[in-house]
Design a protein that fits this description.
About 25% of the residues lie in helices and about 30% in strands. By secondary structure, the protein is of the alpha/beta class. Helix 2 links the parallel strand 4 and strand 5.
């Protein structure tokens, strides 16, 4: 039974705050590193009025690069577009590899290219997104696009987190690629998925993922196609599905994605509580959480780190005294700072002045680790 606290909490958190209208543009980009490969995209963004090629709303917004399912296109995901864009996220739908013989490796590279390209788009004075994008990026996909998301995460230098909606095994293998993925990852899996069987697809991708923080959400009686709008070709794979309603599955999906991206693209501690407590708020999910640490709860094996987010210094408290060696890694796993912690009266200080803004992981030689945010 839900406690009074979780009932009130869920009502407060999940009140839709539709702040923005939805703008749209169709664009094509060229990857010079792959024989000038053309990458077509449909882009939806926060605006002051709905429409094509309307100005982007004032402000700066994180962005999400999305990979579609097999023989599906961006129109199938209108529910996700509305849920995320109205809340201040830019959605970039990569429309390549839409035929009956998709090349998964090319699709993954397309997703990675768009993530890296848009990471710098806010500095392009000729772009409609000039001064309108935060340098915070996620890659997400459904089914084939979910598997390609893991492929993309192994090559993108810009991605902060990833999300997979019923991610499918690909060729080359998304399961194998997952062992090289270190950014935070969430997998949404319908237990009644009749297209990509969870035990052969979603679960091994999750289990192989090397992220310091990863979530697996089993949507009880959820389907493969329930993430998309009705009427797509996906539905032919589940003609006789009789599980969780599409409306219920999409509500769960929207709530979890908004919370996930709020945490890892906006550093929201309250949304991290949503992820931690979500199973208690309703009865249709079973969540497995494997995290060294979270943004909101910076305890790691007896060590407390604060303030988080930090600015000029990060303080660590531990029961131990003396010295410990440490390394700080960015989201690609690259060591950017290393040194020695000098604990005095159980406290040590690390300067973060020279670190660019972003999300980092600190590893200490005693095996503890903590994720922190530098503003």
């Amino acid at each position: 039974m839900k406690s009074l606290y979780t009932l009130i909490f869920s009502l407060c958190v999940f009140t839709l705050r539709a702040q923005f209208a939805v703008g749209h543009s169709s664009e094509s980009y060229t990857d010079p590193a792959r024989a000038n490969r053309s990458i077509t995209c449909e882009i939806y963004y926060p605006a002051d009025a709905n429409g094509d090629n309307v100005p982007v709303a004032a402000g700066q917004f994180p962005f999400v690069v999305f990979g579609h399912g097999f023989v599906m296109d961006y129109t199938a995901y209108g529910n996700i577009t509305e849920a995320l864009v109205s809340e201040g996220f830019v959605m970039i739908y990569v429309e390549t590899e839409g035929g009956f013989a998709p090349v998964h490796s090319d699709f993954g590279l397309d997703l990675a290219y768009m993530a890296d390209h848009f990471y710098n788009e806010s500095a392009n004075a000729a772009s409609p997104f000039y001064n309108r994008l935060e340098d915070r990026c996620a890659i997400m996909g459904h089914s084939m696009g979910g598997g390609a998301t893991w492929l993309a995460a192994t090559t993108s230098i810009s991605v902060d987190c990833i999300a997979g909606l019923a991610p499918a095994e690909t060729n080359p293998s998304a399961i194998d690629a997952a062992s090289s993925v270190s950014v935070p990852a969430i997998v949404l899996s319908g237990s009644s998925d009749a297209v990509t069987v969870p035990a052969d697809n979603h679960s091994p991708i999750f289990e192989s993922t090397a992220s310091a923080c990863k979530y697996f959400v089993n949507i009880v009686e959820g389907s493969h196609c329930g993430y998309a709008n009705s009427g797509s070709l996906c539905d032919f794979g589940e003609l006789f599905f009789a599980g969780l309603s599409r409306e219920e599955q999409q509500q769960i999906t929207h709530e979890l994605l908004l919370a996930w991206f709020d945490v890892y693209l906006r550093d929201s501690s309250s949304s991290n509580e949503v992820l931690q407590l979500y199973d208690e708020m309703q009865g249709n999910t079973e969540t497995t959480i494997e995290c060294v640490v979270s943004v909101a709860n910076s305890h790691a094996q007896g060590m407390l780190v604060f303030p988080n987010p930090c600015s000029e210094s990060l303080f660590l408290e531990s029961d131990a005294n003396g010295t410990k060696t440490y390394s700080v890694m960015d989201l690609t796993g690259r060591v950017v700072v290393s040194g020695t912690l000098m604990f005095s009266s159980g406290r040590a200080e690390v300067s973060t002045v020279l670190l660019p803004a972003g999300v980092y992981t600190m590893r200490v030689d005693d095996g503890s680790g903590v994720r922190f945010v530098k503003r």
